[in-house]
């Protein structure tokens, strides 16, 4: 028997509870893992609270991230005792995830623990940090240099935003951080590397087709009218990396920024990211993130506290990253 957070559905309502389940109930997988840490992402929050249609079948163990030690493996790349990391691949949505003491997974979904990191640190990064790294790389790949101007980061208080700020600062970029909680989170965001704070309300007004050019590039986790406003304010030859839709999946914009200012809109997906690209991104994260990040932007909770934390993250009451000690 092992401990797990299990989601069930009753009359279309999601019921979350920490319980004991038998190991024979684990789904199929060629690598068995003893889980040390998971993390809480916004998507996990939607799954646990039932506020979003995330889970594809019940019962389900949520947790799109996990880090642990291989206990049994039929995959030649892994052996008992190896430390491994998983993010994405639909785990915690269609396949039992990380919020349990044990997991059974496909070896193709795993990457070795990056050198210089451990289970807690890698979950402090998690899908959010991994996605942030891919977004930052998209800005770099677009040819935008630190001397070209400020990079705007929306949803700055969240997991993707907070890691993006840290990474951009480490690479020498000036960062403007957008948040609706400037009074409570402004100091933390500046300590992570933001050069200034932008009130979210400034980006919530309807956008004109083109506005004053303010940003060399941007990383957006919000979507909808905020993204439309950002696009209208991007410099000529600028780029926007997008990875979230916390504000909605619509985009009330025009083609004007793209055809008159040569702006690039780059979508970023971390769920199905190929293995080799994953390994490279994790190596960059291990190299770039300072020790101070893990102290400033991480909160640890127990598995028993994950249900309340899920409620908090969906209500916008979480800053930075939440790691779950399994």
Quickly list its features.
326 residues; 2 domains; alpha/beta; ADH-like_N; 9 helices; globular; Quinone Oxidoreductase, Chain A, domain 1; ER; Rossmann fold; six-stranded parallel sheet
Contiguous helical run count: 9
CATH architecture descriptor text of the largest domain: Alpha-Beta Complex
The number of domains is 2
CATH homologous superfamily label of the largest domain? Medium-chain alcohol dehydrogenases, catalytic domain
Radius of gyration: 20 Å
Structural class by sheet pairing and helices:
alpha/beta
Report strand %.
Answer: 25-35%
Mean pLDDT: 95
Give the ordered list of helices and strands: EEEHEEEEHEHEHEEHEHEHHEHE
Counting DSSP E segments of at least 2 residues, the number of strands comes to 15
- Low-pLDDT runs of 5+ residues are none
User: Which quaternary structure do these chains form?
Assistant: single chain
Distance between the termini: 14 Å
Helix content: 25-40%
According to CATH, the fold-level topology of the largest domain is Quinone Oxidoreductase, Chain A, domain 1
Instruction: Give the biggest beta sheet.
Output: 7 strands, mixed
**Overall geometry:** globular
- Class of the largest domain, according to the CATH hierarchy? Alpha Beta
Task: Give a verbal description of the structure.
The chain is of the alpha/beta class and 326 residues long. It has two domains: 2-113 and 296-325, Medium-chain alcohol dehydrogenases, catalytic domain (Quinone Oxidoreductase, Chain A, domain 1), CATH 3.90.180; 126-267, 3-Layer(aba) Sandwich (Rossmann fold), CATH 3.40.50.720. Helix content is 30%, strand content 28%. It has nine helices and 15 strands. It has helices at 42-49, 119-141, 159-170, 182-192, 224-232, 256-260, 275-288, 291-296, 306-314, and strands at 2-10, 13-21, 31-40, 65-73, 83-87, 102-105, 110-112, 151-153, 175-179, 196-199, 215-220, 234-242, 264-267, 298-302, 321-325. Strands 3, 4, 5, 6, 7, 14 and 15 form a seven-stranded mixed sheet that branches. A six-stranded parallel sheet has the order 10-9-8-11-12-13, sandwiched between helices. α2 (119-141) crosses α7 (275-288). The longest helix has 23 residues, at 119-141. This is Oxidoreductase.
């Amino acid at each position: 028997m092992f401990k797990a957070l299990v989601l069930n559905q009753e009359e279309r309502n999601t019921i979350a509870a920490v319980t004991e389940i038998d190991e024979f109930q684990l789904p199929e997988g060629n690598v068995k893992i003893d889980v040390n840490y998971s993390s809480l992402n916004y998507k996990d929050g939607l799954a646990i609270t039932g506020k979003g249609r995330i889970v594809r079948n019940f019962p389900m163990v949520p947790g799109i991230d996990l880090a642990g030690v291989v206990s049994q493996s039929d995959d030649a790349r892994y052996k008992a005792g190896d430390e491994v990391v998983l993010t994405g691949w639909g785990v915690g949505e269609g396949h039992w995830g990380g919020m349990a003491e044990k997991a059974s997974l496909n070896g193709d979904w795993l990457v070795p623990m990056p050198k210089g990191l451990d289970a807690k640190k890698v979950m402090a990064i998690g899908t959010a940090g991994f996605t942030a790294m891919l977004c930052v790389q998209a800005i770099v790949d677009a040819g935008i240099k630190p001397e070209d101007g400020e990079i705007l980061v929306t949803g700055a208080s969240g997991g993707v935003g907070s890691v993006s700020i840290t990474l951009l600062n480490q690479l020498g970029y000036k960062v403007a951080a957008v948040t609706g909680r400037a009074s409570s989170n402004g100091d933390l965001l500046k300590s992570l590397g933001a050069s200034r704070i932008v009130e979210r309300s400034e980006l919530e007004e309807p956008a004109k087709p083109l506005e004053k050019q303010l940003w060399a590039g941007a990383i957006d986790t919000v979507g909808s009218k905020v993204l439309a406003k950002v696009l209208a304010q991007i410099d000529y030859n600028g780029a926007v990396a997008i990875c979230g839709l916390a504000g909605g999946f619509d985009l009330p914009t025009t083609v004007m920024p793209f055809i008159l200012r040569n702006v690039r809109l780059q979508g970023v997906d971390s769920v199905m990211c190929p293995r080799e690209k994953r390994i490279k991104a994790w190596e960059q994260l291990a190299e770039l993130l300072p020790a101070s990040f893990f102290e400033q932007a991480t909160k640890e909770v127990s598995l028993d506290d994950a249900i309340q934390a899920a409620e908090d993250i969906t209500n916008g009451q979480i800053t930075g990253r939440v790691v779950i000690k399994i």
